[in-house]
């Protein structure tokens, strides 16, 4: 085996590009992936039944090939990147001509920028009457995507996925971009790559789709995928054909692993079972360490980032900004953009209006960024993901506090780090006016617990309207320390009275974490 060998320039041969399609929901990602797959000139020869394996390769009329990741959207893209895998060479950004640039279009742009991957714009649905692709070009300009017809460098193609207009032009644009990138790999070495998809099949056992990135994978070889290993019993492409070997940029489904690896994990062919066991044991140990580290309080990107800044290892502080209104998002973006010094750069990866979503957490996780929440909160799923993945969300309601914190962070002075720990949610069912106390909220705890004296954030229609402290917490007539899920209680807020039925109360504690 040649595992671990370095590749000399002379060993490198041109390889097909790997493309991910991204864009706003309903702009036609799935339709375009379907249409491109049907445009494959080799599909007819194969005659096989196409199967979904998470990625497929098409042959373009000129004979060159293109690999598409068959999971549209940036969730998979960023999830893979978060595991350290860089799979995609370029992104096709689908923008529906009748809808224009939308929030997920902007997210996709920022995900691609953060990964340093070039974009090709596909303006879709041009078959629709009265659409204006010029508007799309102008809107993209506002997000620093300058298409060629406006004098920029980003290729653009007007397409219709359903009417199959200009699909050849899109494939040409991809091929051209691939030439510019000069994509190469050594096919004559042990195979290495990334797991794209995996599942446990009833009849076939663990099945993983892997993208070969270097070398050539051969049937019968022993591979380690994530922490699993096994001998490749069979290898199939997306057309259901049995293959004996698979070279760079080819996605293949492999059978024979001992267990199901995770998408985004690395796979590598090794010389023998002993080596496979060794690598898989090592990875399993790492995995266990990671899991226990994630459960240890105080480990998170902010503390880690700070430590790295202090050690001089960190050259960039990356931030994802979510705010309640556009004006605040922009103001924070501008303020942060001005920060930084010779040693450390401050970079805003993404700035948008709305709740913090899983996409934001994935982006932050993949880029080692901190999430700045300005008068907004995280969705339940995003919060859980952030907690699990150790991504820090910092909540603010005053703009200069944001810049203050980030400034401290890049100067390595933000110590000790304060972390917010989510406690629970309560819903206001009734509001009572109580003499000398003010308004008291009759609530039900809807998730987690509420604790005496904890931090509270009052949400009206998902927007934070007040942040402060709980001043009283009662059950029936008694002061209590804590009220659990499903129970009713009375709450009042320090120096705050504007509460209404249906307002939601998010409760949290602040814990201090020693930096580094
Ligand atoms: P996705 O959410 O981005 O994957 O979008 P889909 O591919 O599911 O498409 C959303 C809707 O737009 C579907 O009803 C498609 O039929 C329609 N659609 C997609 N591409 C085109 C197109 O080029 N022209 C027209 N007229 N409709 C399209």
From TrEMBL:
Its main location: cytoplasm. GTP binds at residues 23-30, 70-74, 124-127. Keywords: Cytoplasm, GTP-binding, Initiation factor, Nucleotide-binding, Protein biosynthesis. It is found in: Cytoplasm. One of its GO terms (molecular function) is GTP binding. One of its GO terms (cellular component) is cytosol. It comes from the Bacteria. Residues 14-184 form the Tr-type G domain. One of the essential components for the initiation of protein synthesis. Protects formylmethionyl-tRNA from spontaneous hydrolysis and promotes its binding to the 30S ribosomal subunits. Also involved in the hydrolysis of GTP during the formation of the 70S ribosomal complex. Belongs to the TRAFAC class translation factor GTPase superfamily. Classic translation factor GTPase family. IF-2 subfamily. This is Translation initiation factor IF-2. The lineage of its organism: Bacteria, Pseudomonadati, Pseudomonadota, Alphaproteobacteria, Acetobacterales.
